[in-house]
Write a structure and sequence with these properties.
This protein has three domains: 123 residues, Rossmann fold (3-Layer(aba) Sandwich), CATH 3.40.50; 283 residues, tm_1862 like domain (pyruvate-formate lyase- activating enzyme, Alpha-Beta Horseshoe); 67 residues, Nucleic acid-binding proteins (OB fold (Dihydrolipoamide Acetyltransferase, E2P), Beta Barrel). 32% of the residues lie in helices and 19% in strands. The protein has a five-stranded parallel sheet with strand order 2-1-3-4-5, sandwiched between helices. A five-stranded mixed barrel has the order 14-15-16-18-17. The chain has a three-stranded parallel sheet with strand order 6-9-10. Helix 2 runs parallel beside helix 4 and helix 14 runs parallel beside helix 15. The protein is an alpha/beta fold.
Length: 488
């Protein structure tokens, strides 16, 4: 077979992970993978639907594929396929539709179509309904708490469909490997469509995850990043069954237990967590992670707003005070942990006073980095129907205020490492310098021209190695700069 395939991933890291797996499968079936801008026989777009803008971008990319080669087969998969109710719109832009829980079937479905085994261009039977019976109400999941975690967090939000099991064997030209540990979300934040696009929480089998990490370690990857839609919920749908297993070695939370087991895999030197639900942070959880030398002290805790009344309208299940308590726990347990976050400005009904309350709380938290988003309406969500929608001008003005705060907080955090030695995992080379990340997810540019130190940065031998760098200053682009240490 002499066919070319092009893939494009939109949206989150989970989509990127799944697209990588589709790429591997397509290659194994004989397809040549080319750039999405090239002429191909098959175009696969892993779509996003987190906002109305993401929907529009997904449609644009599917249209673009048809423009690049009108004779090509265009495959649409992902969240936009799940949430778009107007099937005529999908018919206009794609030949094959594949739902979120069938991405492992993409290559086989394409081959069936090419070989004439099916004349059904619209694989609607492969789509998980956007609203299953269990999803028809907007009732949020129960609040999580230490006392109710096993009988209130996920046991009333089961999903009959299991998570699709597939793994990745390699990440060409990357130093860090991503591993999906779960899919779905039970939180039903008022601005979010994802529970309807991805379904409820379904966790991957622990043995499958460990097997995938072992393969990646054997390939030479030193760092793995655990990712998912809501990784704090990993394992809780099987919590009762897990506790009844007399052979189970369980300590703390399923996520903590998984990190411990991954740390035992030879060759893995760093384990990083994706975005976390703030409520998972307890002193016991933090102390458990502290004992794992491979764990990277970088915590991305989604805040969304620092104002309690806005948090309530968002259907977030914590207060700003509770969030600050979580930050304090992390700083008491870890040395200078990087605490990063997401903040939405201009949520429906957000007053000037509420915004100022949110800004003040962010300053108290002292984040290492904030990802600032202007509220974007998503059809089908509760927030889309809320009164008090702000103008783009108002949202833009507030994002600038938070950006100025973010710049100051980031510089304050980076300054903590000037004059110190840090270890970076090298990801790129740039002349006599290399670029990499510290355990705290801080980017560092390092001069490796020292004749007594490692070889010139242009030599591929430094990629995927962990080296020690003495930090001298903060560069204007907001990253640390230093010189590699002798005998690193």
């Amino acid at each position: 077979m002499d066919l070319k395939a092009a893939l494009l991933s939109l949206g989150c890291k989970v989509n990127s992970y799944e697209t990588e797996r589709i790429r591997e499968d397509m290659e194994s079936k004989g397809f040549e993978i080319v750039d999405f801008s090239d002429k191909a026989d098959v175009y696969i777009v892993n779509t996003c639907s987190v906002t109305n803008i993401a929907d529009r971008k997904s449609r644009q990319m599917l249209h673009r594929a048809k423009t690049l080669n009108p004779e090509a087969i265009v495959v649409a998969t992902g969240c936009y396929v799940q949430t778009e109710k107007d099937k005529e719109k999908l018919d206009e832009v794609a030949d094959i539709l594949i739902g979120n829980n069938h991405k492992g079937d993409v290559a086989d479905v394409i081959l069936e179509f090419l070989n004439g085994l099916t004349d059904n261009k619209k694989r609607l039977d492969n789509i998980i309904p956007a609203k299953e019976d269990s999803l028809l109400n907007d009732k949020p999941a129960s609040d999580i708490s230490d006392k109710k975690i096993k009988d209130g967090y996920v046991d009333d939000i089961s999903c009959e469909k299991k998570v699709e099991e597939f793994s990745i064997k390699d990440y060409p030209e990357r130093s860090r490997a991503f591993v999906r540990i779960e899919d779905g979300c039970n939180q039903f934040c008022s601005y979010c469509i994802i529970p309807y696009a991805r379904g409820r929480v379904r966790s991957r089998d622990e043995a499958e995850i460990l097997s995938e990490v072992q393969v990646l370690a054997d390939k030479g990857f030193k760092e793995v990043v655990l990712t998912g839609i809501h990784i704090s919920s990993y394992g809780y749908e099987n919590y009762e069954k897990f506790l009844k297993n007399s052979d189970a070695e369980f300590d703390g939370t399923p996520l903590l237990n998984l990190v411990k087991k991954i740390s035992e895999i030879k060759g893995i030197e760093r384990i990083r967590l994706g975005s976390l639900e703030p409520r998972i942070i307890t002193r016991e959880f933090a102390l458990g992670l502290k004992e794992i030398s491979e764990f990277c002290p970088h915590f991305h805790l989604s805040l969304q707003s620092g104002c309690d009344t806005v948090l309530k309208r968002m259907n977030r299940h914590y207060t700003s005070e509770e969030f600050l308590e979580k930050c304090e726990i992390l700083r008491e347990v870890f040395d200078r942990p990087a605490i990063t976050t997401d903040v939405i400005v201009g949520f429906p009904g957000e007053t000037d006073e509420e915004f100022e309350e949110s800004r003040d709380m962010c300053e108290k938290a002292g984040f290492a980095k904030m990802h600032i988003f202007k509220f974007s309406r998503r059809k089908g969500t509760v927030a889309d129907r809320m009164p008090g929608q702000l103008t783009e001008k108002e949202k833009h003005a507030r994002s600038l205020v938070l950006q100025e705060l973010d710049d100051r907080m980031k510089e304050a955090y980076l300054s903590l490492f000037i004059g110190e030695d840090v270890k970076i995992l090298v990801e790129e080379t740039e002349g006599d310098c290399v670029l990499g990340l510290t355990e705290r997810y801080v980017q560092v540019k390092a001069d490796v021209s020292n004749p007594e130190g490692p070889a010139n940065g242009n030599e591929k031998g430094l990629i995927n190695s962990i080296i020690s760098v003495k930090i001298d200053k903060i560069l204007p682009e907001g990253i640390l700069f230093g010189k590699v240490q002798k005998n690193t």
